[in-house]
Amino acid sequence: MIGDFLKKVVNVEGIQGCLVVSRDGLILDNVGQIDASLTSMAAISATALGSAEVMGETMKFGTLQQQVLEFDDGKAVVQQISSDLLLLVVATHKANLGMIRHTINNTIDDLRKSLT
Fold it and tell me: What do you get for the CA distance between the two ends of the chain, in Å?
């Protein structure tokens, strides 16, 4: 079931791949072709999400839902799945960020249900 969700996300134009990652940085599943070390990306995304959560707590913004990172040559979206899991989506710089977020938001509940 995890793979089915990831395939829906990867079908969005410009997405190179996506991973379900534990808060410890361990990869549970991944789909797509990403030109980087998946292990490193998983660990870094878990750490970055933790840092962003502390920022939100400090500013009293509540629970972090999603983190969007835009770089010169690509984009990454980190979505909270549960207190233990996150979704990392990696895309080209030309990918439509709105479409990526829309796809994640429309399918994340199915992923959450499949993991409980």
Answer: 12
| Per-residue pLDDT at 52 | 93
Q: Do residues 80 and 111 make contact, with C-beta atoms less than 8 angstroms apart? A: no
Angle between the N-to-C axes of helices 97-114 and 2-10, in degrees from 0 to 180, rounded to the nearest 10:
170
| Burial classification of residue 63, based on how many CB atoms lie within 10 Å of its CB (0-12 exposed, 13-18 middle, 19 or more buried) | exposed
- Structural tokens at position 14: 């410009």
Report pLDDT digits (tens) over 6-23: 998 999 999 999 999 999
Distance of CA 93 to the CA centre of its chain: 16
List the structure tokens of 35. 């030109």
